[in-house]
Write a sequence for this structure.
């Protein structure tokens, strides 16, 4: 089969790889669509020691079962899935917080991912979806669930209802875009998104109807937003988020561009700011997100760009160089 392989930093190649086998409890999916994630870009840059060259990346997928070794999962049925392979036994799994599973592994990191014609996965990780759901829409389940999980966690911490808040989203990539669309659906009227790429700013304005600003040219007001979502997670954006949030407000930290940095703990303390971290989504989030996508909660998805799997190497280059107006490129084998 053909697979898009991460061969060295800054390089992807379409290569031949052996067909995966359906071992007991697993299925082999014929991949219909797979999205390029920011974490895949991070690996492509050589910045993720967990993802080494020679790996097939890709974890935002939808596919049809080609071969099954799991009861109740029939060949020919379509599924999306949870790329986190969890144990189901640890304290977090039994609490329904399996995104924090102490024994988790991951598709596209510890095992071959979905940038391929076929991929194997434990059947327990599959998420049911409407069989007539468009492939590109279904492939958005994973990133949309990340935004879903983050916004829902944030709403628990806000003093006032979300729709009353002035909201800032830092970063207009896939999570920032999907977060903005979800916030609009939830009634947020005063929404600002910062994005460096001018092409993406236009897409944000058109798709989310929000104020999209270039943060280097237009400084953010200080202490102006009740809720700030940092969808970048760099040292610079962390400082931006803490400076922009109002006293008593909430900062949700989603992105992980930089792994470590100092923050202004004095302001965090004196202004009673709530700083939250979030990691991916639970299985319940994924199921709810499939339903939300099917019902059109995230609006028209015409801003998503589709390309063939063989165009994947150029897609990574285009995303890196800011040549794509889309916050999400979906590859189709």
């Amino acid at each position: 089969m053909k697979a898009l392989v991460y061969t060295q930093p800054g390089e992807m190649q379409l290569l031949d790889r052996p067909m995966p086998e359906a071992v007991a409890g697993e299925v082999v999916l014929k991949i219909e669509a797979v999205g390029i994630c920011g974490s895949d870009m991070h690996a492509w840059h050589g910045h993720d020691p967990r993802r080494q060259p020679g790996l097939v990346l890709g974890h935002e997928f939808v596919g049809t079962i080609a071969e099954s070794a799991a009861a109740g999962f029939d060949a020919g049925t379509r599924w999306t899935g949870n790329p986190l392979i969890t144990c189901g036994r640890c304290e977090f799994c039994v609490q329904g917080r399996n995104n924090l599973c102490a024994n988790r592994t991951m598709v596209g990191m510890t095992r071959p991912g979905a940038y391929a014609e076929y991929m194997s996965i434990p059947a327990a990780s599959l998420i049911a979806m409407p069989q007539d759901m468009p492939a590109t829409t279904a492939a958005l389940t994973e990133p949309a669930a990340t935004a879903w999980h983050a916004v829902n966690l944030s709403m628990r911490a806000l003093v006032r209802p979300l729709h009353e808040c002035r909201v800032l989203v830092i970063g207009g990539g896939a999570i920032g875009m999907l977060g903005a669309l979800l916030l609009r659906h939830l009634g947020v009227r005063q929404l600002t998104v910062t994005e460096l790429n001018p092409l993406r700013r236009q897409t944000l304005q058109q798709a989310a109807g929000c104020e999209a600003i270039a943060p280097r040219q237009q400084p953010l007001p200080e202490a102006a937003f009740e809720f700030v979502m940092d969808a970048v997670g760099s040292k610079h954006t962390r400082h931006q988020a803490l400076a922009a949030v109002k006293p008593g407000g909430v900062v949700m930290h989603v992105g992980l561009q930089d792994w470590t940095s100092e923050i202004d703990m004095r302001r965090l303390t004196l202004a009673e700011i709530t700083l939250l971290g979030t990691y991916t989504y639970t299985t319940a989030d994924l199921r709810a997100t499939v339903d939300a996508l099917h019902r059109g909660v995230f609006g028209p998805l015409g801003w998503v760009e589709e390309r063939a799997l063989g165009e994947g190497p150029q897609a990574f280059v285009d995303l890196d160089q800011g040549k794509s107006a889309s916050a999400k490129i979906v590859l189709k084998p």
About this structure: The chain has a mean pLDDT of 96.
